[in-house]
């Protein structure tokens, strides 16, 4: 019967991150720096809010778009923090993680043969969803522009079929962010074009050197931009599965239909927890961010000392060193590190073909783990040189 399975589903593959993670879990005594999951606990007051919600019997369906309290809090949060203006009544949708927000956004705007521009290397969650819509991902090589998708690069790849540009900044896997100037140049290019922007800002609370800026805060862009956010990374709440989607009402009303038939609504208990996170806990990410930045500085210095060429990240909790001084193939190098050094990093090829020649290290791990992993990598590279 397998031949009856939808061809597009058959053609997509499991994420290379997970595949690699599953593969290395067979090896003993490996320090894994592979997963993009904050190592902090969900803040206690957020957990208490969820417990109270259960005791208060907040256990039924909510409005399809999420409780009005949470939508109001989400709108207030992005207004205060990023100068974004959305009406909680009809421009905010609470989703099952950022992942589902991306899915329903793409399903609403894409058609057969639409083209979607996105940077490469890039988070592997977009491509399969684009392909399931019969649309075509157009990965642009950003390895020459410090992993930044520039207006020039976008312009070179625009066609009459371009329906959407994905701006995933701060970036997983590279940790880079775009400057206000770069966002304005992209806005100037796209403002008179019938092209949507999907701005995945799930790491917006983890920007080190400045305040996070969203392209939707540039006035000409709100009408064509879908902003994706959520509490997974900002509040260490990956398992609660709460994402947020912000879009102008003409667009949100159609996205909401897809969402409604897809999941009805996000978990009521998780929504109560997210409400607490975005109100009483609106600055919960500040301390986590300080810790991530210290770890970044440590890991960056160690990698540079070992001889890796690496762009210093300004956000998220990943660093993406080039392996060209050591190996030509990122999968083989990552496997070698697992077997010989006892450290797991994700091969860059998991982030599109433009990630080949790099590895991703997640520093969402304790300083002790990071120190031990860096020591192991360094010892291995030194012994390799003397062979
Ligand atoms: C860039 C990016 N977008 C979206 C997601 C998915 O987030 P969520 O867990 O909220 O679905 C991730 C998760 O790693 C991510 O890195």
From TrEMBL:
InterPro entries: Aminotransferase_I/II_large, AspAT/PAT-like, NHTrfase_class1_PyrdxlP-BS, PyrdxlP-dep_Trfase, PyrdxlP-dep_Trfase_major, PyrdxlP-dep_Trfase_small. Gene3D superfamilies: Aspartate Aminotransferase, domain 1 (3.90.1150.10), Type I PLP-dependent aspartate aminotransferase-like (Major domain) (3.40.640.10). GO terms for molecular function: pyridoxal phosphate binding; transaminase activity. This is Aminotransferase. It comes from the Bacteria. It comes from Priestia aryabhattai (Bacillus aryabhattai). Signal peptide: none annotated. Its cofactor is pyridoxal 5'-phosphate. Pfam families: Aminotran_1_2. One of its GO terms (biological process) is amino acid metabolic process. Residues 29-377 form the Aminotransferase class I/classII large domain. Keywords: Aminotransferase, Pyridoxal phosphate, Transferase. Its EC number is 2.6.1.-. Belongs to the class-I pyridoxal-phosphate-dependent aminotransferase family.
């Amino acid at each position: 019967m397998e031949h009856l399975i939808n061809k597009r589903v058959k053609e997509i593959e499991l994420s290379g991150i997970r595949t690699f993670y599953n593969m290395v879990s067979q090896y003993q005594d490996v320090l894994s720096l592979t997963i993009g999951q904050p190592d902090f606990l969900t803040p206690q007051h957020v957990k208490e809010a969820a417990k109270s919600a259960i005791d208060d019997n907040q256990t039924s369906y909510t409005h399809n778009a999420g409780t009005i309290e949470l939508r109001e809090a989400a709108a207030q949060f992005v207004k205060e923090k990023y100068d974004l203006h959305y009406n909680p009544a009809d421009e905010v949708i609470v989703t099952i993680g950022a992942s589902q927000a991306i899915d329903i956004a793409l399903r609403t705007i894409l058609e057969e043969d639409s083209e979607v521009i996105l940077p490469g290397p890039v988070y592997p969650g977009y491509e399969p969803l684009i392909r399931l819509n019969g649309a075509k991902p157009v990965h642009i090589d950003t390895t020459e522009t410090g992993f930044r998708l520039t207006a020039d690069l976008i312009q070179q790849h625009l066609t009459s079929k371009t329906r959407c540009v994905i701006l995933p900044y701060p970036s997983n896997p590279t940790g880079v962010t775009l400057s206000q100037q770069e966002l304005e140049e992209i806005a100037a290019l796209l403002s008179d074009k019938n092209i949507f922007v999907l701005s995945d800002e799930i790491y917006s609370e983890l920007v080190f050197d400045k305040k996070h800026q969203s392209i939707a805060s540039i006035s000409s862009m709100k009408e064509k931009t879908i902003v994706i956010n959520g509490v997974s990374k900002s509040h260490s709440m990956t398992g609660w599965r709460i994402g947020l989607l912000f879009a102008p009402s003409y667009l949100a009303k159609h996205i909401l239909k897809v969402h409604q038939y897809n999941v009805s609504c996000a978990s009521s208990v998780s929504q109560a927890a997210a409400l607490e996170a975005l109100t009483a806990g609106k600055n919960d990410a500040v301390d986590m961010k300080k810790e991530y930045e210290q770890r970044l500085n440590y890991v960056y210095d160690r990698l540079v000392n070992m001889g890796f060429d690496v762009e210093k990240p300004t956000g998220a909790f990943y660093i993406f060193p080039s392996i060209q001084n050591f190996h030509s193939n990122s999968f083989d190098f990552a496997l070698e590190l697992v077997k010989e050094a006892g450290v797991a990093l994700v091969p860059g090829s998991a982030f599109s073909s433009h990630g080949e020649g790099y590895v991703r290290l997640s520093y969402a791990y304790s300083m002790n783990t990071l120190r031990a992993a860096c020591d192991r990598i360094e010892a291995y590279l030194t012994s390799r040189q003397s062979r």
